[in-house]
Amino acid sequence: MDGLRQYVISVVSAALLCGIGVALTPKSAAGELLRLLCGVFLATTILGPIAGFDLDILAQLPQNGYSEAESVSGIGIKMAADARNEIIIAQTEAYILDKASLWNAQLQAKVNVDEEGLPAEVYLKGDASPYARQQLERILTSELGIAKENQVWSG
Amino acid sequence: MTKVLISIFLLLSLAIPAEALEIEAPKVPSSSAQKMPENTESLSEGLLELMEKAIRAVRPDLTEAVKVSIQVIASAMMVSLLRTFTGSVKNTADLVGTIMVAAVLMRSADSMVRLGTHTIRELNDYGKLLYPVMAAALAAQGGVTASTALYAGTAIFDTILGTLISCLLLPMVYLFLALSTANSAIGEDILKKLCDIVKNALNWCLKTILMVFTTYMSITGVVSGTTDAAALKATKITISSVVPVVGGVLSDASEAVLVSAGLLKNAAGIYGILAILAVFLEPFLRIGIHYLLLKVTASVCGMFASKRMAGMVDDFSAAMGLLLAMTGSVCLLLLISTVCFMKGVG
Asked: What residues of B are in contact with residue A94 (Cβ under 8 Å)?
């Protein structure tokens, strides 16, 4: 961009010089010759650098802008996924505790979700009768889709 | 009782996204903080308050601009009086008069160009903070394609316009003024064509960038918005058909996040628009006052002053017009982008 600014400054400076030169020269054959020379000088100043313009910087702009946009969108997607996962974890844990209370099981549940937000594993801690535990295992597998090997019981 | 408690807990859990989603518009620059309206949640009320504050703030500028106009008119009158003499006095009076008027005008024009430069820089800086927030919010709301496309377009055009204005167009305003003064001093309209080219090039640059940008944003907004809406619908159908209970939970959670993201995005957008206008409005009105008064001065000078002097005053007002166009273009670009991000999915 500095090159472009330089270009405009040089064109305007040349024009000013030519203008002053032409204005100060009397209208004679020599004056006409000076006008002609000024014209050639101005044309060279204007047209010369145009051929050498580097357009690579402009060509790179869309690519840079797009990769920046993708990373910004990625932040938004991650933010939404995190918020959604928080809700899913909270609701799934509440659902498990609700079901556990049906069989008088006093439990603490900690659910982890996978990348798609689906419950992937659960850590259960507390007192539960063998019957309650069996019923809960069934619900965890069939209703919540948590595989048996990912249901970790303790306490 | 347990069921009621669990239901309350489930309802409360839906409020989680508002906290988890940290979508907040960046704070307005400290120099414009006092111009921000008290109520930043209502656009119409905020706009009225902004206008009121801006109009009150430009009062001293009106007096200043009137002083400049009086100085210019007085100088032009003096020169006209001297022009009644014939011979070399007439030419000397013209030359000295031009330099005198140019000196008066250049001082106020310089302060206005500096004001415009500062405003454009502040708007650009604020935009650089606002765009990522709005794009992330739109992506969180499900507009993944739209946010990427809109952000890419905005970032590219903002970079082009910002760099072009600060590195090329603003110096060109000074060059335009220099050419106009030189043309008026020489007095043979030799540089008039070049003056016109500079002015037209400036106008053309701004118009073209804004036109291409608006077209890009309109097309991208419609195309990517529709794509995102279809993708969201497909996702909802897929989610509902997953494991019975999990499907419902997943669907509700996604819906809650989308709604929350939408609400937060709109709030950030409204704050962003008000912040942009808080930065923009007062300088725009100040430059606008100088522009209008210079136009009036040029008309008044046209009645008694020489054509070249009236033309120079007119050129100075045209320079103010260009400055208004530049500041307005940057602001418009920011506003269009924010509104496009706010429009969202669908």
From this structure: 6, 9-10, 13
